[in-house]
């Protein structure tokens, strides 16, 4: 079997964050800010070091503002609720709510301000106040890092594990750093930049995540400074020790692609069709011997049969593609002609008599689960759950170590990006379907599903639904705690960009802004590992922060 034409990989260590390091937090103070004097337009980073109560919140005010319910804060966020987490650092301009009720102050002009931490939801309980100043000088475009060091733990093992230290110019400061793998000719052409690292301090030290690999061909690491005014024209760089890049030997036993949320719509959002065409062309060009393409739900934006037909027309217009396999998504159930038409159309294109089924692809078992009622949630019947448990028992009897690939559109609560506390994009059916996604565990279907997957650690589960960018915090979930390996799949149609929330430096929370883009995965299966390559279908590049090796 021919390997992918473009090769990149990353070792699987999760919960995923590209980097991790400890925040210096003063436990004597519940509220902290990265500094007290800022350029106009500079990011202001704040941290609620520990929650005074579940309802504590932070407000940004003009220094002279009275503190009562008649004066709206300019920005505000909860200290440990609704997707904001105590101990995490946030850029308050982007991560907090913006009431926009005081237009003259909307862009935070030069002046004196105060950050106030309230102990409860009321305005009459201020606990801590920090005064800050925004200068009249406009934020300059940042200078490149003034110092950059990267010490590998073991230069011979191909892993990126090691310590990075960066220092920045106070006169032209950075609020984050963008790093790229490079060779002697510059940035690797087949890779996007690494996930952005927030840099609230002038000197930042952090650890590269364990077992993340250095991509094939990389000989240098480049670092650019970034702030709200732009990106540094120059960069700092470090040379990698000779031979430190990871090398992949041998041919895969199976190669296939996983994507989700195509959202074909014939009357609007035609860019979704173009993104799907880009995916098809990318696969045909780079993996012509692919064993299959799996789409994990939301193929049709409104569930209309004409949208399914358009998907097929686009797919059939690209020569050299393998067979497509589909899981049921919530949008696939929304057909205006009714549930019978929606589920009947899905079964037609999935070539199955049920919304749940299994296929054996190149010797590996693939299991497709799906909701059985119209709506946002994955409502799995007892019959489906019993079938799934029985299939897994059957496959385990064949081999207890061979991976089984499982696809379910909606994710389990608090597993991968989009399903974390307060993010509200999980959606396995709960007992009280009036609850919002993410409210409470203990629902019947989710509890039963968790009990089944806990018995089979060889499962590799893929979820869609949230559209979370593959560079997001906890894009994937490491096997453990009675859960299997789980991946967020991004989206083919469009993405959601995470808020600028950071726990030193790359923890993201809540849905942020619409992000035009298209992402998914290429997979290669070996006897002892699975390589999962995050892919940007618009740029035609791999996403190094979303490439993993799953050890078997």
General description of the model:
The protein is of the alpha+beta class and 552 residues long. It folds into three domains: 43-138, no CATH class; 141-239, Immunoglobulin-like (Sandwich), CATH 2.60.40.10; 254-551, Metallo-dependent phosphatases (Purple Acid Phosphatase, chain A, domain 2, 4-Layer Sandwich), CATH 3.60.21.10. It is 13% helix and 30% strand. It has six helices and 33 strands. The chain has helices spanning 92-95, 271-286, 305-316, 339-350, 382-398, 444-453; strands spanning 19-20, 31-33, 37-40, 45-48, 57-62, 75-78, 89-91, 111-118, 126-138, 147-152, 162-167, 176-183, 186-187, 197-198, 203-208, 220-227, 230-231, 236-239, 254-259, 293-296, 324-327, 357-361, 364-368, 404-407, 459-463, 476-477, 485-488, 495-498, 501-502, 511-515, 519-525, 529-536, 541-551. Strands 12, 13, 14, 16, 17 and 18 form a six-stranded antiparallel sheet that branches. Helix 5 packs parallel to helix 6 (444-453). The chain is globular, with a radius of gyration of 24 Å. Mean pLDDT is 89; it is low at 1-26, 432-442 and 500-509.
